[in-house]
Amino acid sequence: MEPDSVGAGLSAWLAAMPGGVEGPVEAARQRIGRLSRQFELVLREVAKEYGFSAGDWQALSALHRSGAAVLTPKELADLLSVTSGTVTVRINRLEQAGLIERVATASDGRSRPIRLTRKGRARWAAATKKRTERERALFADALGEKGLADLNALLALVLSRFESELGPASPHDALRPD
Q: Which CATH architecture has domain 25-166?
């Protein structure tokens, strides 16, 4: 197997860094960060294939997790950690695509609840299935079943240690605005 983008240049990069940077720690940090960006790339590619943005997908996912319940735009913005302006743009785009609907009348649009439509739920499910199939194939090609289980065990240990020191990590990906 060819060296990854971290391994290929790590020695030279570390030689140029000031003292105190530990190679194995920096390599792990670099790999985890780059993998995170690769997962985001897969999500963005699949989202585009299904006619929405990664940010839209994040909103659809939050609505899906709410079950049959509805969310106000403010609740959705809080869940996604985005501004009211950003959530308004997403809501308008998703409503125009027929993926969500407003369910009550209110004088203030920021408090008017929204929910997934059948079309929205089906499109979210199909895109999520495609994304997970693609990620599964990438993992299987690189690791196999045992390797994936071992990786998950190691990552659980590392995440647990980081969270015990720094507090719980956000359960949601922090995507850049669309």
A: Orthogonal Bundle (1.10)
Identify the three-state secondary structure at position 100: strand
Q: How far is CA 31 from CA 7, 11, 62, 124, 142, in A?
A: 9, 14, 28, 29, 14
Q: State whether residue 134 is helix, strand or coil.
A: helix
The answer to whether 62 and 79 have CB atoms below 8 angstroms apart is yes
Neighbours of 117 (CB within 10 A): 17
Residues 120 and 36: their CA atoms lie apart, in Å, by 26
Q: Hey, CA dihedral for 172, 165, 160, 154, is it positive or negative?
A: positive
Residue 18's alpha-carbon distances to 15, 27, 32, 85, in angstroms, are: 8, 15, 22, 42
CA-to-CA distance for 52 and 157, rounded, in angstroms?
A: 35
- How far, in Å, CA of 113 to CA of 85, rounded? 16
Residues 99, 117 contacting (CB under 8 angstroms)? yes
The model carries a pTM of 0.80
The gap from C-alpha 38 to its chain's centroid, in whole angstroms, comes to 11
Per the listing, tokens 């985890």 go with 32
Q: What is the pLDDT of residues 104-141, one digit of tens each?
A: 765 555 578 999 999 999 999 999 999 999 999 999 88
Q: Which helix (H) or strand (E) holds 56?
A: helix 54-65
